[in-house]
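Customer escalation, tier 2.

The customer says the design service returned an amino acid string that "doesn't look like it belongs to this structure." They asked us to rerun it and document both sides in this ticket. The original structure tokens are below, unchanged.
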């Protein structure tokens, strides 16, 4: 890790921010991710939703998958299931995941690429390891983020975006000690490739041991830092933050983080996600794969799913049980 690398000396630089006069965001809270089992039986680390952090408006869920070295036959995925009312963003750092959906979107998400699925009014999809990963095993490491949609866009038509690894906007910190990949949104005037309904910024940064990363941050966005691997400190107070931990920040116009001088043996750099978005500030009703504004809208979503109004599994992906009603 990571899959996408570059020589930071050749990249555009983030601006140097003055120590004095900058409204640095401080750390409001830190959360350690819990471990959960999803899909056909793969484990994820999830900092939210949790007892300590119900949600981080406009973000609904963050699942960290791996890093894990699968043996032959061990890789598992999430078979066909519905969604409505939000967007799923799957970022694969290492390994591969195959995606198919009921509107014809899909493909192989691999080695630094991102699959952005807007469920909107409703969609069916699956996320499974490709046959070669199942057969041979291998490294698997990725993240899935759920981004809420405002009431006015809950029933927008579903869409799919395939963002290749080479599409991410690459930047360097002001001293070249950190590589910054902008997947979506704007960072210091540099835009990522992801098209978002809800205004957000989504960044993956690799910070060299002992290096510091300063970033201007929209004052009307929230701000989160999640550690994929390694260890460091966040905020002007230098709050320690290690793998599987999430920091939630107070208001301000800039973020500062610093990698520890020495890193764990399996992680020569500090790998972090930096997330922020414009809070929607609307009621949230959620149950399983549906996120709406009211309980009745959740009931409606289940009824629409059962009636086939959220889409149907493409014929090429139907199993024998799906084709034979007597097999159920």
């Amino acid at each position: 890790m990571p899959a996408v690398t570059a020589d930071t000396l050749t990249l555009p630089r983030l601006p140097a921010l003055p120590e004095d006069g900058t409204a640095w965001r401080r750390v409001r809270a830190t959360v350690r991710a819990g471990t959960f089992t999803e899909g056909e039986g793969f484990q994820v680390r999830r900092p939210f939703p949790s007892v300590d952090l119900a949600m981080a408006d406009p973000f609904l869920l963050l699942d960290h998958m791996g890093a894990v070295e699968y043996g032959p036959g061990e890789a598992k995925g999430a078979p066909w299931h519905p969604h409505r009312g939000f967007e799923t963003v799957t970022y694969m750092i290492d390994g591969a995941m195959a995606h198919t959906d009921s509107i014809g979107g899909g493909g192989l998400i691999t080695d630094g690429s991102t699959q952005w699925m807007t469920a909107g009014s409703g969609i069916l999809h699956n996320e499974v390891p490709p046959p070669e990963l199942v057969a041979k095993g291998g490294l698997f490491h990725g993240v899935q983020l759920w981004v809420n949609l405002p009431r006015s866009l809950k029933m927008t038509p579903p869409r799919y975006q395939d963002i290749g690894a080479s599409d991410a906007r690459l930047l360097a910190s002001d001293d070249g000690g950190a590589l910054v990949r902008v997947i979506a949104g704007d960072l210091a005037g540099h835009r990522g490739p992801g098209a978002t309904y809800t205004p957000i910024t989504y960044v993956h940064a690799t910070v060299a041991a002992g290096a510091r990363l300063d970033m201007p941050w929209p004052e009307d966005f929230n701000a989160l830092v999640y550690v994929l691997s390694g260890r460091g400190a966040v905020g002007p107070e230098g709050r320690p933050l290690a793998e599987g931990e999430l920091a939630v920040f107070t208001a301000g116009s800039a973020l500062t983080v610093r990698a520890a001088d020495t890193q764990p043996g399996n992680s020569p750099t500090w790998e972090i996600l930096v997330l922020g978005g414009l809070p929607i500030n609307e009621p949230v009703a959620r149950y399983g794969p549906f996120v709406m504004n009211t309980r009745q809208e959740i009931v409606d979503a289940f009824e629409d799913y059962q009636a086939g109004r959220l889409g149907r599994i493409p014929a090429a992906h139907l199993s024998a049980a799906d084709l034979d009603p007597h097999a159920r």
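Tier 2 assessment: The sequence is consistent with the input. The first helix runs from residue 131 to 136. The chain has a mean pLDDT of 92. Sent an explanation to the customer and offered a walkthrough call.
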